[in-house]
Specification:
Length: 152
């Protein structure tokens, strides 16, 4: 881990403006099977906490905190870090910064990782998450994996 990550990571809650474009950039690169247009992201920002992590002025990741829904009592915390910025401590710092927001909504926390994102899967497993479900979006061939934290 490079020491600069702990000092320079800046996390911004985004609801509109250029931050939404940065969130979109990260999401669509990491989840190419389900790219999101800005209008959908803007609508989601009204119901969910969307954040972008920056190293200086460079976006390195995005996160979503989703409140519990009717079919699950868990809050969902999804942290994504661009491949070029992984293994530098950004993911861990970003996850720890967003976790209190998820825990304010529920004692139980889930995350979701695209199966092809092996770095994301390793990260989730190393942070005490276990797989509880796999699902495919219509027309997709790569499943999403839902994992639940066992650290609570």
């Amino acid at each position: 881990m490079r020491l600069a990550a702990a000092v320079s990571l800046r996390i911004e809650h985004v609801m509109d403006g250029p931050g939404l474009s940065d969130w979109q950039l990260v999401h669509n690169e990491i989840i190419p099977t389900d790219p999101l247009p800005l209008d959908v992201i803007s609508e989601r920002a009204q119901r969910r906490r969307l954040t972008v992590a920056y190293d200086g002025d460079v976006p390195v990741g995005c996160a979503t905190v989703r409140p519990p829904e009717d079919d699950t009592p868990a809050a969902t915390l999804i942290v994504r870090v661009l491949p070029a910025h992984r293994r530098q401590g950004f993911g861990d710092q970003f996850y720890r910064a967003e976790l209190p927001h998820a825990l304010a909504l529920s004692d139980s926390v889930d995350t979701i990782v695209l199966e092809s994102n092996q770095d994301g899967l390793r990260f989730a497993l190393s942070h005490g998450f276990v797989e509880i479900e796999r699902y495919l979006l219509p027309g997709d061939t790569i499943p999403f994996i839902t994992l639940r934290s066992t650290d609570r």
